[in-house]
Amino acid sequence: GEMQSAILAVAGGTTVVDPLLVASLMESAGERDPLGMLSRREKEVLALIAEGLSNEGIAERLNITPAAVEKRVTSLFRSLPIDADRATNRRVAAALFYLSNRTAAAA
After folding, report:
1. DSSP state of 60
2. Which long-range contacts (CB under 8 A, 24 or more apart) does 89-97 make?
3. CA nearest 75: which of 106, 33, 46?
4. What is each CA distance from 73 to 5, 26, 28, 83, in whole angstroms?
């Protein structure tokens, strides 16, 4: 059966990895993506915030309404691990978070 096939494959020099282990590793790799919890549209909005665009500029660029942008920005602020105190500019904090984590997300 499956065990015999694996033993023969290993004896022949092939590496055999448990499919459950692979699935587990893939799942935990997704958890390491700090931007992984965001939708595609939220990532687009966040990238444009990092470029310095206003909500109006983002709406124009993505061809969506300013209200839709505001909804995405509000969702971003709730999803990202950024401070919500009065001393922190959340847009700047979100942009910095994106810029420091986009390489991990692209990997």
Report:
1. H
2. 91/49, 94/46, 94/49, 94/50, 95/46, 95/49, 95/50, 95/52, 97/34
3. 46
4. 52, 29, 27, 15
pLDDT at 7 over 80: no
| Residue 45 near residue 58 (C-beta atoms within 8 A) | yes
Amino acid at 47: A
State pLDDT tens for residues 50-100: 999 999 999 999 999 999 999 999 999 999 988 778 888 999 999 999 998
Task: Give the residue from 82, 19, 31, 14 showing the smallest Cα distance to 74.
Answer: 82
Residue for token pair 């109006």: 56
User: Residue type at 73?
Assistant: V
Q: How far apart are CA 61 and CA 2, in angstroms?
A: 53
Query: Which residues lie below 8 Å from residue 32, measured CB to CB, with a gap of 6+?
Result: 104
Is there a contact between 34 and 101 (Cβ–Cβ < 8 Å)?
A: yes
Q: What pTM was computed for the model?
A: 0.66
